[in-house]
Amino acid sequence: MHDLVITSRRVVLPQGERPAAVAVRDGRITGVHDPDAAPRAAERADLGEVALLPGLVDSHVHVNEPGRTHWEGFATATRAAAAGGVTTIVDMPLNSIPPTVDPAALAAKRRAAAGRCAVDVAFWGGAVPGNLGALRALHEAGVRGFKCFLSPSGVAEFPPLDAARLKEALAEAAAFDGLVVVHAEDPALLTEPAGPTYPEFLGSRPGEAERRAVELVIGLAEETRARVHILHVSSALCLEPLARARRSGVMITAETCPHYLTLAAEQVPEGATAFKCCPPIRSADNRDALWQGLADGVLDCVVSDHSPATPDLKVPDFAAAWGGISSLQLGLPVVWTEASRRGYGLPDVARWMARNPAALAGLDGKGAIAVGADADLVAFDPDGSLTVDAAALHHRNPVTPYHGRTLRGVVRTTWLRGRRVGETPSGVLL
Q: Which keywords belong to this entry (predicted)?
């Protein structure tokens, strides 16, 4: 007897979308059957035309606890994740205090998260000046890789690496096959905004700054034979060097975010600093090129870069406001709205938002509906409609650029290891 069987006309498998019955026992998927050959189970759910997707894996989330829990926190972030069909998040090493740059800080982060998580949580460590010789210890303590900045991070306790220290970090990580994930903007090309408007802010962080930093990472990764990943690609200028590096055998992957794929600089309202992020949202033409980068496989993942802040930090001045977008709960309908309009299917979205982020973070058993995988599943109505109300989201602070937008697609139910995610925290720390 199985614990659960879920049937849908639209089950999204690694091989594509088809009618199927997914059987679950003891939290794992035990079989994917034809609907008329489904095994017996204690509980059954027939979704009809509502799609069954693998639980999403969001490998770029700033939870900010401990230290800045008033910005977010594990309880609120993971409830938002579950409501958005995300069953695993990977927490960034900043903006918590202390940042996750040594095993003691990781232990503090785990204590803060214990018993408070609605979904599963893994952790990135940080690579900063002063801890590069201790990356192995962090790796052995369980982090999934090491985040670094090449330009100022926005918080003093997480300083950037220069080229020499980046090379040192890559060489250290390569010695144990660790992964380094990079916020890639060249600080030499960044300036202070000339004024408070969005065009002035955008001009202060040109796409060339991203491209030049990506080329630096590529050269040093080739030299050290390290595995690297480029975070939140916003500029299409990065696509050609990334494609060329992959063809030449450099072990490099890259991600982009829902806001870069769905928003455009031309549409940012005056003073609407909920749209501010670093690197910035660029032009509509640039957005089109990023979609092509996904289609071509140059960009691997679509993840939120959920970087929340309290409303008082989002002052209506693009030079002074905190840079970060809150979207953890909304990523799936945001991306599906635009992906479906452009002719992409649910298998594409599942690859970009579940399978590939799971592979990036080394999360075996996550990100796909397959025998032996964790039964992390999402009932997603691809034809449903959702009008975003920031105050109704589970994020701790009601700030999002999507407020008032009508999106296509609604998450109906989320299962974590075969159990519906409810009020009682059931996530584990990976």
A: Hydrolase, Metal-binding, Zinc
